[in-house]
Amino acid sequence: EVQLVESGGGLVQPGGSLRLSCAASGYTFRNYWMSWVRQAPGKGLEWVANIKEDGSEKYYVDSVKGRFTISRDNAKNSLYLQMNSLRAEDTAVYYCARDHDHASDHWGQGTLVTVSS
Amino acid sequence: QSVLTQPPSVSAAPGQKVTISCSGSSSNIGNNYVSWFQQLPGTAPKLLIYDNYKRPSGIPDRFSGSKSGTSATLGITGLQTGDEADYYCGVWDSSLSAGVFGGGTKLTVL
Predict the structure, then answer these.
(1) Does A110 contact chain B (CB < 8 Å)?
(2) Which of A90, A70, A111 is nearest to A13 (CA)?
(3) For residue A62, is it left (φ>0), alpha (ψ between -120 and 50) or beta?
(4) What is residue A101's predicted lDDT score, i.e. its pLDDT?
(5) Span A27-71, pLDDT tens digits
(6) Which of B4, B11, B12, B60 could pair with B108 as two cysteines, CB 3.0-4.6 Å apart?
(7) Residue A49, SS3?
(8) What are the distances in angstroms from CA A3 to CA A6, A26, A66, A68, B108?
(9) CB spacing of A103 vs B96 below 8 angstroms
(10) Cβ of residue A22 closer than 8 Å to a chain B Cβ
(11) Per-residue pLDDT tens for B48-79?
């Protein structure tokens, strides 16, 4: 069974940093692209970033370019999102998702990031 | 303002059929594969449709997807109260080099 478990969320002040992790199990992690998707309270889904199987390609939504970095460790079956210079508008539940056949076919339960002073 | 346009809400009676539209452009829906997601209250999104019309294993055939030009449609037949949820379309945008989602459609089963 595919399982994705996010961690690392919490309360952080504006301008601060946070590193999210996603632990994958139940499949061969190194064979799949992975994505981060976020959802602000009461709002819709927003795609954040994705990364190729070997980490050689990464893409970001414009609003996080230069501030967020997606990475992965295939030996540890883990996906990461380093978030710097956080803003109030980054407050959201962050989901990691496995990408397959042009879609995110499995999602974690999400981790809440709150940016507030 | 989302790149993909969905109606904010739709409603229908139990047992009836409903369709949800998703309108985009040539840089996203027109040249890439559309997926659809269901998000029940308080839960993570769940993949319903991928590659425009394909259903993952376990998704009943009451759910269907189609695409024409720069628009896509999700159809749900035999509506059940358990289908009340938010539905999102998603696709890769080749011009943005980024994934994009519609704003979401809230389905109410009256």
Answers:
(1) yes
(2) A90
(3) alpha
(4) 85
(5) 999 999 999 999 999 999 999 999 999 999 999 999 999 999 999
(6) B11
(7) strand
(8) 10, 6, 30, 24, 30
(9) no
(10) no
(11) 999 999 999 999 999 999 999 999 999 999 99
DSSP structure class, residue B102:
B
Question: Any chain B CB within 8 A of the CB of A46?
Answer: yes
Contact A75, A84 (CB under 8 A): no
Among the partner-chain residues A44, A47, A105, the one whose CB lies closest to the CB of B99 is A47
Chain B residues in contact with A35 by the CB 8 A cut-off are: 99
* List of chain A residues whose C-beta atoms are within 8 Å of the C-beta of residue B98: 47, 59-62
Q: For residue B1, is pLDDT > 90?
A: no
Mean pLDDT, chain B, whole residue set = 97
* Of the candidates A34, A13, A38, A14, the residue with the CA atom closest to the CA atom of residue A24: A34
